[in-house]
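hey so i finally got around to running the thing on that chain from the lab meeting. sorry it took forever, my laptop kept dying and i had to restart like 3 times. anyway pasting the input first so we r on the same page abt which one it is
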Amino acid sequence: MVDSIVGKVAATVTGCLLDPISRQFGYLFNYRRNITHLNQKIQSLHLEKERLRIDVDAANRQGDVIYPDVQAWLTYAEGIIQNRDDFNKMKRKQSCFYFKSRYCLSKQAKRDAEEIAAKINHNFGDRVSYRPPPTSVLPFISSESFKDYEALESRENTFNQIMEALRNEDMLMIGVWGMGGLGKTTLVKQVAKQSEEQKLFHKVIIVLDITNKPDISEIQGRIASHFGSKFEEDEDRAARVRQMLKKVEKILVILDDIWGKLDLGKIGIPHDGEDHKGCKVLLTPRNFPVLSKDMGIQEQFCFCLQHLSHPEVWNLFTKIAGDSVESHELRPTAVDVAKECVGLPVAIVTVAKALGGEKNPAVWRNALKELKTSTPVNIEGVDEKVYSCLQLSYNHLKSDEAKSLFLLCSLVGEGDISMDSLLQYAMGLNLFKGLYLWVEAADRLITLVKNLQVSSLLLDNRADTYNHTDGRN
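ok and heres what got predicted. didnt touch it at all, straight out
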């Protein structure tokens, strides 16, 4: 009986002594296995981090707030992954006879692998973020949409003044005004480009063609598209837009072609400095009162765009029309044609492209007659000469299909026109005679669109959308 008890006690004591000893020796004998197992776990951690990062990036674009435990997990994973190379370098330096170092590394590797395994198995559920509650609402405006920008001397001073104003931390709203066709949209596009190049802002957003009937939902959707985001049904869009914009420390929002007071609060654009001091707004109406009275912008931050001077008109005209206009036979008539454009860049570019390369004096004389006798079109904020210039360019289109496509673009409506919609309308109206296959019709459409672009009758807005020229920018 006594022997049995002593034997059990001895066995228990021996087990208690041998287990820790064998475990310690195990760190030496299983050195390579523990190191390999650790690297495998780190690789699994890396893959899990990349998967989680996709959800986090998507949530950031939506203006959501990331849960603290998710952010802490990513920070931990990033630290482990960065330290892997240092750990492996230490391993490579060890001699196979340096038992103490191998023992320590093996023990650390086993402990870290177990910790990483627990982190990998952590479940965050279906969401990594939450939608913050809406904050108070605020109000404001618009800008831009043309092409073929030229660095003209009369624009340089205005451009520099605008850039200087954007550097003013106390300036929150700024405006550029002038009649349609002066190139306001083109100018602010250059401002946006320069602002990005000089890193004045972390993000620049341009919303084109707001027009005299602003669609708040559409404006909000176009702002959200800059963040790769979409709205959920019955969502507070203004609050969501505000959250997106506030995520960016310094941001410039350009709203184009506003005709009157625009409630920026309904859109979700911060504008008073209290909600988001880093958000600045640039607007482009046609009249000064819209900026000063309706939008309350200080006069020192309202910049007027003037007509081009006579030397600028001729320099721009000859650059686009070509050297042939300098010939003895054409120059007198070409000068008069350029004057009919009354210093409006949109008119100059349109007419010069329509007559570019033409060497027959009779064609130029006829064009001059058309410009002088064209029936005036009274559109608020647009010089009547713009329309006579557009009509001349339209008349010089070389195919009836191109003319029909231009008219179709005009009928579709204001703003962006997608290629898919144009193709559907064109096929439904049998615009392309003799073409019945969808692929062939698409090729014809692309060709005609390029022709209209070359004539400056169709403007390239975004990747798959176009805007017909109506002389308003």
